[in-house]
From TrEMBL, chain A:
GO terms for biological process: G protein-coupled receptor signaling pathway; intracellular signal transduction; negative regulation of signal transduction; regulation of G protein-coupled receptor signaling pathway. Residues 293-408 form the RGS domain. This is Regulator of G protein signaling 11. GO terms for cellular component: cytoplasm; neuron projection; plasma membrane. InterPro entries: DEP_dom, G-protein_gamma-like_dom, GGL_sf, RGS, RGS6/7/9/11, RGS6/7/9/11_DHEX_sf, RGS_DHEX, RGS_sf. It comes from Poecilia reticulata. Residues 431-442 have a biased composition (Low complexity). It comes from the Eukaryota. Pfam families: DEP, G-gamma, RGS, RGS_DHEX.
TrEMBL record, chain B:
Coiled coil: none annotated. InterPro entries: G-protein_beta_1-5, WD40/YVTN_repeat-like_dom_sf, WD40_G-protein_beta-like, WD40_PAC1, WD40_repeat_CS, WD40_repeat_dom_sf, WD40_rpt. SUPFAM superfamilies: WD40 repeat-like (SSF50978). It comes from Poecilia reticulata. WD repeats lie at residues 75-116, 165-206, 207-250, 251-292, 302-336, 337-369. PROSITE patterns: WD_REPEATS_1 (PS00678), WD_REPEATS_2 (PS50082), WD_REPEATS_REGION (PS50294). This is Guanine nucleotide binding protein (G protein), beta 5a. The lineage of its organism: Eukaryota, Metazoa, Chordata, Craniata, Vertebrata.
């Protein structure tokens, strides 16, 4: 027997949790002390009690959650769309209007979560009631569904009609105000559980995630291992985040903007052109970034090239070459591993090799042993040794070198693009060669670029 | 507190089986106790070194000013819910996939569609751009991850060159190329992650440990580049060693499915987004959760998260159609962005941090800057 957390009748845990949270909001809204002010609302000639205006709802949400009007409107609209609040005027239109339009709380009886799932039978009875009450009250799509249901559950049709008649009879005995309220409540429920065609189905939650496996070993092993690990004090770790964000702040286009301009905002691709992989003169920010960490330097093609030049001057370029070759092994095709490992051995590790790299004897022995049965990670230890050698030794000296300092001095600081005097004149958006091509020109793209305002983007 | 579930075969009529069952129950109870004890000890150890909160450390940091981000491009063309997207390294192209099986490559800057493929399955929940820009990978309800080389020959049928790489026993939830076009990392509804060799389709390593569907993964931007994090329906976020297949760290503080995980740019932490409507930050060196990003008015789940380039901002795409922007250090919500007309299902910041892209169930993608 499997113990399973199966939510009631098929509602997934995610759905239940959202419904519960919305219901909490509802309860808070109806709190006698802190809840909403409600009033009687005149609907044509009938007075409906316990109603509130759209404006009231939004104001309450703003005060309760300390949010702005737009967010309150959005949140309130979710409550309407999921059927917790329904409109009295234009009941088929489930939107929240930020004005004097009247709304009411849905009774828990008609909450989607209470009656999940909505049944075919109940829907048939509802449509039958509408049909009987006033001929022609059924809208086109309702008529279609009604006749479909009639075919599908034909065997219980007598029951459907009987129930419909009974419910209608019972409702006639209610006060007019109550009758109208009940009709509105029921209609709102069905608008959500059986939405009209073309209206978003709020109850579409995507694919189910039914899988739950039983495993016990991993948890214990992982916990045991975790107990043994070294941890760093929070104060040290967290300080690291502050420092990192500070260091990179000027480099963060979303936070600080970028020069000359953000291409997405100005339609000018100068920023990308200036920061292409290889340029005659790099930007200052880019060269500065090389000093942030060794990884930054190596990840930038130009940075790596500069560093290689420096190493050549120091006669230690074989280190970087070795590291690059090891990267090729680690990330390259499986079929080429043996061949590449052989090459690396020949060029860098074998005694008397042309570009011999200086690795400690322990690592060298381990690597040579591993090469006998080459695999993707056989060079890892040696590669890391050389990486940290460069990082601790050559890299800091490179940053102090004239080569780097000159690069930094030469580097360009782009001018901010002046904003266009005529804000409605949009620049032509030029296409760029696709990385997927192998030499073919992008000529056919230009015809569409720039003139393509109908492609769907809007300002 | 999660409990380990065991499937027992019910046949108490045979006495030997009955004894076996009692023994099994005892072992199970013993293991459960051991597991609980270990977890409590682990939490105690973690708490010992927690001497300050992130927002306290961040008190001295300047507050962020007013935030203005708008939709700069809207990409229309999918006929159904957009489920996933990824950026090309060229900082302007993207690939997106949708419920109706279509995978589209766009130049997001011009909004032109450059390639389109129809997959043989629906619900293409995962797609990724190859680092070279010459191929895309995708998969979903077909339980596979396939690689399509991108050709500029308009007459060529992309589907003809398709290469099946990964094979799971349940839906593919996420995929990512590693540092090259040659390896792909996948996560699946079958509860596992796997590393594959693209050329041969060979399974290089598999990762077992999640107790339910794995929904997301992200590769670590570290110097040694050997780890990745995954999140799943078991509410756990696991950090894995790609070489050994071992789970080296595990975090379980979310109250519901984890839909998205993303590393902080330095690689020392990662953020997660969950159906419990919160985003959380986990520090790998401190080995604990260090921040929760939540607000009482945010009720619906987070489908996807990503950091701005400096890691100061965390963007979250939510199931209530909005995007919330969080100050990672101070823990406050900086801004809320409206625009999509249905769930935001996917969100990624561009490689150079100039913009982020969202995909939605409203069939569109938007670029925000």
């Amino acid at each position: 027997m499997t113990i399973n957390t199966l939510a009631k009748g098929g509602l997934q845990p995610e759905q239940m949790s959202c419904f519960r949270k919305m219901e909490k909001v509802l309860v808070a809204m109806q709190d006698p002390d802190m809840g909403m002010k409600m009033r009687n609302q005149r609907l044509l000639i009938t007075v409906i009690p316990h109603a509130m205006t759209g404006h009231d709802i939004i104001t309450w949400l703003i005060q309760k959650y300390h949010i702005c009007e737009e967010e309150a409107l959005h949140l309130g609209e979710m409550l309407v769309k999921y059927g917790y609040i329904y409109p009295l005027k234009e009941p088929r239109c489930l939107v929240l209007r930020p004005d004097e339009s009247p709304y009411r709380f849905q009774t828990p009886y008609f909450w989607t979560s209470t009656r999940w799932p909505a049944s075919e039978l109940d829907y048939a009875i509802y449509l039958a009631k509408k049909n009987i009450r006033k001929q022609g009250e059924l809208v086109e799509y309702e008529k279609e569904r009604y006749s479909l249901l009639h075919k599908r559950i034909n065997h219980t049709w007598d029951f459907v009609v009987m129930q419909a008649r009974e419910q209608l009879r019972a409702s006639k005995q209610r006060r007019k105000a109550d009758r109208i309220v009940l009709e509105c409540q029921e209609q709102a429920y069905w608008l959500i559980n059986r939405p009209p065609p073309g209206v978003q189905n709020m109850l579409d939650w995507g694919l189910e995630r039914p899988n739950n496996f039983s495993t016990r070993v991993p948890l214990i092993e992982t916990s045991r291992r975790a107990l043994g690990r070294n941890r760093v004090k929070s104060s040290i770790c967290l300080e690291g985040f502050v420092k990192y964000s500070e260091q990179y702040q000027n480099h963060d286009p979303i936070m600080q903007g970028c020069l000359p301009s953000n291409p997405w905002i100005s339609d000018d691709i100068a920023y990308w052109t200036m920061n292409s992989e290889i340029v005659p003169v790099p930007t200052r920010l880019r060269v500065e970034r090389w000093s942030f960490s060794f990884m930054e330097l190596l990840s930038d093609a130009m940075g790596r090239r500069e560093f290689m030049t420096y190493l050549e001057k120091e006669f230690s370029a074989e280190n970087l070459h070795f590291w690059q070759e090891c990267e090729e092994i680690r990330h390259g095709e499986s079929s080429k591993i043996i061949e590449k490992v052989e090459d690396v051995y020949k060029n860098f590790l074998a005694p008397g090799a042309a570009r011999w790299v200086n690795i400690d004897s322990k690592t060298m022995d381990k690597t040579l042993e591993g090469i006998k049965r080459p695999h993707r990670f056989v060079m890892d230890d040696a590669q890391m040794h050389i990486y940290f050698l460069m990082k601790k030794d050559s890299y800091p000296r490179y940053l102090k070198s004239d080569l780097y300092k000159n690069m930094l001095a030469k580097a360009v600081v782009p001018q901010e693009t002046k904003k266009s005097v005529f804000p409605f004149m949009r620049r032509q958006r030029h296409s760029s060669p696709s990385p997927a091509q192998a030499g073919a020109p992008a000529a056919e793209e230009d015809g569409r670029a720039g003139t393509n305002s109908a492609a769907g983007s809007h300002f | 507190v999660p409990v380990q579930y065991i499937v027992l075969k019910r046949s108490p009529l045979i006495p030997e089986m009955a004894t076996q069952e009692v023994q099994l129950n005892e072992t199970l109870a013993h293991l459960k106790t051991e597991s609980e004890t270990l977890k409590t000890k682990l939490e105690e150890e973690r708490a010992k070194l927690h001497d300050v909160e992130l927002h306290q450390v961040a008190e001295k940091v300047e507050a962020l000013g007013q935030f203005v981000m708008k939709t700069r491009r809207t990409l229309k063309g999918h006929g159904n819910k957009v489920l996933c997207m990824d950026w090309c390294k060229d900082k302007r192209r993207i690939v997106s996939s949708s419920q109706d099986g279509k995978v589209i490559v766009w130049d997001a800057f011009t909004t032109n569609k450059e390639h389109a493929v129809t997959m043989p399955c629906t619900w293409v929940m995962a797609c990724a751009y190859a680092p070279s820009g010459c191929a895309v990978a995708c998969g979903g309800l077909d339980n596979k991850c396939s690689v399509y080389p991108l050709s500029l020959d308009k007459n060529e049928n992309l589907a003809a060159k398709k290469k099946s790489v990964a094979m799971h026993t349940n839906y593919l939830s996420a995929c990512s190329f590693t540092n090259s076009d040659m390896q792909i990392l996948t996560s699946s509804g079958d509860g596992t992650c796997a590393l594959w060799d693209v050329e041969s389709g060979q399974l290089l390593q598999s990762f077992h440990g999640h107790a339910a569907d794995v929904l997301c993964l992200d590769l670590a931007p570290s110097e040694t580049g050997n780890t990745f994090v995954s999140g799943g329906c078991d509410k756990k976020a696991n950090v894995w060693d790609m070489r050994s297949g071992q789970c080296i760290q595990s975090f379980e503080t979310h109250e519901s499915d984890i839909n998205s995980v993303r590393y902080y740019p330095s690689g020392d932490a990662f953020a997660s987004g969950s159906d419990d409507a919160t985003c959380r930050l986990y520090d790998l060196r401190a080995d604990r959760e260090v921040a929760i990003y939540s607000k009482e008015s945010i009720i619906f789940g987070v489908s996807s998260v990503d950091f701005s380039l400096s890691g100061r901002l965390l963007f979250g795409g939510y199931n209530d159609y909005t995007i919330n922007v969080w100050d990672v250090l101070k823990g406050t919500r900086v801004s809320i962005l409206f625009g999509h007309e249905n769930r935001v299902s996917t969100l990624r910041v561009s490689p150079d941090g100039t913009a982020f892209c969202t995909g939605s169930w409203d069939h569109t993608l938007r670029i925000w800057a």
